[in-house]
Here is the input.
Amino acid sequence: MPYLISLLAGVLSFSASATAQEPAQAELPPVQLDGQRDGQSLFQTNCAVCHASADADSRTPTVAELAGRSPQEIVQSLTDGAMRYQGYALSGEERRAIAMFVTGRSFETGMMHETIGKCEQSPVLQAPFAGPHWNGWGPDSRNTHAQSAEMAGLTEQDIPKLRLQWAFGFPDTSSAWSQPTVVGGRIFVGSQSAYVYSLDAKTGCTHWTYAARGGVRSAISVGEMHAAEGSDITTFAVYFADMRGNVYALNADTGEELWQVSVEEHPLVRLTVSPTLHEGRLYVPVSSYEESQGASPGYACCTFRGSVVALDAASGVMLWQRYTIDEVPTMRSRPDGGRYFGPAGGAIWSSPSIDVKRNRLYVSVGNNYTEPQKTTTNAVLALDLDSGEIIWSMQTEPDDIFITGCRNSDSAACPEEVGPDYDFGTAPLITTSHSGKDLIIVGQKSGVGFAMDPDDSGKVVWQYRAGLGSAQGGIQWGTAADAEKAYFPVSDLFREIPGGLHAVDLLTGERSWLRRLPNWFVGHSAEVAMGHNLPRLQ
Here is the structure.
């Protein structure tokens, strides 16, 4: 059976900020702060040790890379983003001064909101799942990223005829973060600037916007709400998470907030994943910024533990929370007298998958931050849907204790041997082969893709080497599968051999075909979606 493979990062991300300008840092004088230190000296004191160092970690943006971002993005990072721990000691004016120095640009007056492009009419959603749709990360709770030609509304003959119909620019952002959801003739999508949009799929006009409390990286799930007493009208809600640990439910027709809850109290929490909606429950995995802050001087590392939270979709009430590391972090000492907290880590970066047949939920877990090493990190876990109890754990990369900056730090939290940082960044999808055999498919930053047996405690059926792997390479964020093949996108960022897209026989683990990326291409592995009855990639 032939297939079409599409990289969603390019197809569904739309455009970045329509107002992006070339940085002009060299043409601007330092920003003065009424007698206080200017932006340049603030940057040198607080930021240069990582961003201007020749020995900086490869994932740390250089000064030149920072110059291409907007001032608003820099302030957001220092306020409630990846650099918020460093920003805690800075005043608002100092954050703005740093932002203007590194970007070479001044702030626009306030945040830009949509002033044109509003839809003239916004009819209520009616039978939104009757026609073609893609809901949440999945497009279903098995997370196969497989879409039938009927549901896609495309045929082989349609592909060469596709043309741009409209484009939407996200205001005040430098990156399109969220995978769009297409349901009932609408597109629901989040943004880096914390705004969630309901757009018309045909025209791109805006039905409504909602301002979340943090940037929204997750895909949005749409689900049916309970009808009001005495009413026969069915309403729908949209569910999503933000980068500050909040989860939301909004009225899908109007954008009105129905409920909002915080699922984790740790100060460096973030939710990078798309929550999975299933039978009245919302399953939310939890990750954090702590891995990138752990080696910072003066930080008491590390105290975060990844978890899965089950919420009642109607009310937002927490039903259960299961930590990936069962032991609460405690203070520990090293022979040289250094102290740190552990065990910590086990963040979950990607969406959970639902196995209805076995009443289980599968999550892929990242590495330990601090010692001691646990068997439930760098692993796939199977949880009971009702209670959250861990049924089994399959670890594929032991001895991987990692926090950013340990190669240039004497922090007591750093292990004697720094691990390779081979997290699981992809959702562990579940698919059924033509023979009727169920398999869990998952890819790892090590560059290896796995097939696991859900009936044998996750035993590895086969493993496939798709790339060399690295802290930022290997397989991240997206795999796909159908009844014949598994598809692994690999970036191998900073490696000599470019990445590509691998199609692997589902039953044997043998390569069916490979399409390499051009040598000039640099980027992370993207999500992959595949449609049935469409032409094979040549």
